[in-house]
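Format notes (please read before filing issues)

Several people have asked whether sequences and structure tokens are stored in separate files. They are not. Every record keeps both together, in the order shown below: the sequence lines, then the token lines. Line labels are part of the format and must not be stripped during preprocessing.
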Amino acid sequence: MIILNPDLKCSMDIIGVGLIKISNLNIGGELNVIFQKGIGYQLIQKIFDLNRMKILERKTGVLIDLINDYTTYLHYFDNNNEIIVIIYLDKKESILKFSKFYECSMKLNKMICSNVSFTEIKKILENDFNIPKSDSVLALLIIGTAGHLFFSKIKSNKEKFARSDVQISGFISALLSFTKELIGQEPGIRLKQINFGNQQIYLTLKNDVIFAYLVEKEQISKIDKKNMELVSDEFLYKYSEKVNLSAFKGDISQFRKFEKIVDNYFTF
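Then the structure lines:
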């Protein structure tokens, strides 16, 4: 296993981290997300769009900005007709971490220039950066508006809920078919809740896919909401074509690998 530096100790708690490659610099730059954890694809695109001109003009440098109540640190490097960008997303008051971010970026860029594979680099990023997880979610159902249950993950102590997940999915889908205006599909996440005994089901609808979260508390935290948005963002990024009504043929095994991504954000 490759270690960044025994004295560097890059392992740290952070809101999110991303590694992107920009190619086709002569036509405005084409974005390729190599790795992301705790930063949604939409937010990465937004960060890039806001800083595109500076990055393409300078090719190497550092940018610090505030976005969506967080501080973003961008370190970018010229790499043979491409630009490598490392994004750190953290709390506003985390400015003291800058030197550590900078050292990590320099080491990562050195590895990239030394032709270390992106597979190895992704392993390092996955292992060394810890993002906050939510522990308040008892169950997650990802449902098509036609009632298909694409994916579910349920805490082991919710056996009754687990036995009825297909029926509950159908109920939620039918309910939303009559009350779609309560949810909306505008960019971002807009949560609505349904009382479910002494628990709540929080719902969001994006691109005709329903994301339902069973929680015990009425008020969810900022991290809960952020992680819910990340799960929907990553699911649609990976599977938007496969969950299309004309393309979906009933095979849900293709979504099983999504459990690893869910585990990045929720503790079941």
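For reference, the curators noted about this record: Helices lie at 41-58, 98-113, 118-128, 159-163, 165-179, 222-239, 258-265. The chain has seven helices and twelve strands.
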